[in-house]
Amino acid sequence: MTQFEGSHILSVSQLDLDSINTIFNVANKMTPYALREKRTKVLEGAILGNLFFEPSTRTRVSFGCAFNLLGGHVRETTGMASSSLSKGESLYDTARVLSTYSDVIAMRHPDAYSVKEFAEGSRVPVINGGDGPNEHPTQALLDLFTIKKELSHSGMGIDGMHIAMVGDLKYGRTVHSLSRLLCMHKDIKFTLISPSELAMPDYVIADIENAGHKITITEQLEGNLHNADILYLTRIQEERFPSQEEANKYRGKFRLNHNIYTQHCKSNTVIMHPLPRDSRAQANELDNDLNSHPSLAIFRQADNGLLIRMALFALTLGVEDQLEKYECPV
Ligand code: CP
After folding, report:
1. CATH number at residue 104
2. 178 and 117 share a domain?
3. Relative to the CA of 330, which of 79, 97, 106, 252 has its CA 20 to 30 Å away?
4. C-alpha angle with apex 91: 247 to 54, nearest 5 degrees?
């Protein structure tokens, strides 16, 4: 039995290097099941409550598919309007009720700390699929898993690496969670590139500084990427701005395309983005002309999300050692 069995996964602050390694080891074991080379029914009869009160493609569908690939069923609720939350029901009451119908719940909600509030009423493990601008712990885990794999191709590890984070670092919850996971490692160099109005929150910067890592804060993309091992781009999170006009002020400020990459980055700088990227002309922070570049890891990140979410279900439900026992023909 691991520390995860029966537990909520709400924040990366619950994790340490040992527990992250446990998740990554189980995620690696999931590869043949995700690739459909093997099949297991280890979660047959179990139900995932997949509650998404904010738009999502990757997180929602990969949570659902991860559960299906382990043999379980998925009951999905999407959008606030289709839930009695829109009639004033509390998160606590909603959790009390829905946790009777499910064995585990994944949830995304537009408000910071809402998933934690929901978990207080839940009788089953709750996994945070993104709570407003606060955290996105499963994305951070899949990002770290991806960084580890990508850097291993150049014989590097996470300790000692240089990451440049670019874009909306204020509202981009993935960079908050990822920074905190990276803080657990040694000698990381952070270059944080954003408009000053969209800078990384002070509490994340304090975590980075208190962990003794080097940090550069700038508003300039060009000239600050040349030593980066990882270039992590983010979208302007327009849904968190007071108005569309306010968001428009920042869209298109930082753009990466083939020409800029070739001029300003090392030849093997890994390009990451949690997606969705905003491909509308006025934004276009990551151009399609890099789509076939071998350093573009954005779709490998999304692939790894399936493995990480399969691992988290197996661990929270305590079946990580029973995958083979419940194997069946492909
Ligand atoms: N990365 C991510 O959270 O994507 P979705 O919003 O599509 O789930």
Report:
1. 3.40.50.1370
2. no
3. 106
4. 30
